[in-house]
């Protein structure tokens, strides 16, 4: 038996020939401040893409009514362009979080510095009695910022991008622009585009 035949047999035994990767939910959140447990979600934006080629499947954005605006940081509200008028159709917290979970059911969440988003989103889910398993969500959340940092070190550009390795600097490097920075959906869209570009760049480094 040839090596190729052995590999094919092994794949068949494991059932990997029918393996379909999870979709990836590229997400971004805007919040009333920097501190989970004190501050709240204001906005969630998501781009859902295929797990094999990152082609877009869907996108959505939801604004959330803050329940404790008195705890908000003025700087955060200004950065996120919060106003009563802009948020007049925002959903209550519980409704928005459940909608988010349903929209990304079965996906691998991903984001830029996604630990920040997760620190707000997962506790928000838990307060409603929701856990990741309820919506078949992946426990491993993919951080596109870490992919960018890996590319930076592989291309020896630490001095150019470090120590912050910001999304803005990465977008400028790859010619990605957004007209509405610090709104959730445009930033989620930029993160999805960054993931696409980084996959292309990694293929150049490791053919």
How does this model look, in words?
The chain has 207 residues and is an alpha/beta fold. It has a single domain, classed as Ribonuclease H-like superfamily/Ribonuclease H (Nucleotidyltransferase, domain 5, 2-Layer Sandwich), CATH 3.30.420.10. 43% of the residues lie in helices and 15% in strands. The chain is built from 8 helices and 5 strands. It has a 5-stranded mixed β-sheet. The longest helix is centred in the last third of the chain and has 22 residues. The protein is globular and about 50 Å long. It starts with a helix and ends with a helix.
Keywords:
Nucleotidyltransferase, domain 5; 5 strands; globular; 207 residues; alpha/beta; 5-stranded mixed beta sheet; 8 helices; 15% strand
The total strand number stands at: 5
CATH class categorisation: Alpha Beta
Integer-rounded radius of gyration: 19 Å
Q: What ranges have pLDDT less than 50 throughout 5 or more consecutive residues? A: 3-16
Proportion of residues in β-strands: 5-15%
- CATH A-level architecture: 2-Layer Sandwich
SS summary, helix count? 8
Please list the strands of the largest sheet in the order they lie side by side. Answer: 3-2-1-4-5
- Look up the CATH topology: Nucleotidyltransferase, domain 5
Rounded average pLDDT: 91
In quaternary terms, these chains amount to single chain
* Basic shape: globular
CATH-wise, what's the superfamily?
A: Ribonuclease H-like superfamily/Ribonuclease H
Would you list the SSEs in sequence order as H and E? HEEEHHEHEHHHH
Largest sheet: 5 strands, mixed
Overall number of domains: 1
The end-to-end span amounts to 28 Å
Which structural class best describes the helix and strand composition? alpha/beta
């Amino acid at each position: 038996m040839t090596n190729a035949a052995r590999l094919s047999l092994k794949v068949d035994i494991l059932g990997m020939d029918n393996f379909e990767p999870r979709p990836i939910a590229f997400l971004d959140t805007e919040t009333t401040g920097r501190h989970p447990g004190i501050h709240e979600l204001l906005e969630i934006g998501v781009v859902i893409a295929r797990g094999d080629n990152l082609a877009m499947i869907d996108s959505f954005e939801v604004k959330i009514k803050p329940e404790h605006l008195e705890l908000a940081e003025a700087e955060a509200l200004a950065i996120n362009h919060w106003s009563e008028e802009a948020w007049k159709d925002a959903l209550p917290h519980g409704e928005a979080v459940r909608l988010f979970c349903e929209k990304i059911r079965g996906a691998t969440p991903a984001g830029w510095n996604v630990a920040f988003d997760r620190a707000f989103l997962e506790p928000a889910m838990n307060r409603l009695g929701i856990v990741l398993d309820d919506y078949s969500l992946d426990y491993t959340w993919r951080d596109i910022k870490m992919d960018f940092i890996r590319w930076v070190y592989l291309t020896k550009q630490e001095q150019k991008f470090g120590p912050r390795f910001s999304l803005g600097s990465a977008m400028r490097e790859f010619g990605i622009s957004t007209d509405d920075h610090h709104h959730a959906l445009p930033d989620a869209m930029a993160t999805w585009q960054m993931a696409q570009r980084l996959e292309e760049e990694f293929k150049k480094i490791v053919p």
